[in-house]
Design brief:
The chain has helices at residues 15-31, 37-52, 95-104; strands spanning 6-11, 56-61, 70-80, 83-90. The protein is α+β, with helices and mostly antiparallel strands. It has one domain (6-90): Protein Inhibitor Of Neuronal Nitric Oxide Synthase (2-Layer Sandwich). The model has no long low-confidence stretch (mean pLDDT 87). Keywords: Cytoplasm, Cytoskeleton, Dynein, Membrane, Microtubule, Motor protein, Transmembrane, Transmembrane helix.
């Protein structure tokens, strides 16, 4: 496992979901080498799909940017050492909904 405590950057998850994400990251880092980002992401995503339903997305790496739309209560970004983990459940906004939001703004 990568040494160091997880540091949460942003989240809107319930505390229990946050803890589950951190626990899964620790377990993934026990199973896989820290350089195996794809396997770490796959592991965390599949476990969250199993626990909370399908539709979760996981991005793992040391240097990435993102701009995502997510379901309320389904987003966490945290770091363990130099490894960053973004986990979220995607949310699609239809063109009609997007136009309605633009009118309200």
């Amino acid at each position: 496992m990568l040494e160091g405590k997880a540091v949460i950057g942003e989240t809107d998850m319930l505390q229990t979901m946050q803890q589950y994400a951190l626990d899964l990251a620790a377990k993934a880092l026990d199973y896989f080498d820290v350089t195996d980002s794809i396997e770490i992401a796959r592991f965390i995503k599949k476990e969250f799909d199993g626990a909370y339903g399908a539709g979760w997305q996981c991005i793992v790496g040391t240097d990435f940017g993102s701009f995502v739309t997510h379901c309320y209560g389904c987003f966490i970004y945290f770091c363990v050492g130099s490894l960053a983990i973004l986990l979220f459940r995607g949310s699609a906004v239809t063109q009609r909904e997007e136009n309605q939001l633009a009118v309200k703004a």
